[in-house]
Amino acid sequence: xxxxxxxxxxxxxxxxxxxxxxxxxxxxxxxxxxxxxxxxxxxxxxxxxxxxxxxxxxxxxxxxxxxxxxxxxxxxxxxxxxxxxxxxxxxxxxxxxx
Length: 98
What we know:
The protein is 61% helix and 22% strand. It is of the alpha+beta class.
């Protein structure tokens, strides 16, 4: 009788530990997704800042090839080609090209 009660407690403990492990795993997945989303938002904010600075610099100096921070920017028509961290982004020039 005592062995059966011990086995029941052991099985219940294993089931509870398994459920807790699953919950921790799901929490970790959700946290990593939040970190990735935050990282992407930060990078897009940096690109928007580069777009603004490059547009202002173009309106003042008419420079078609620029370096803004760590990014290389090329003005082609009304577009900005931004090379940042090995990735190329295309954004709209915020001033009228002349």
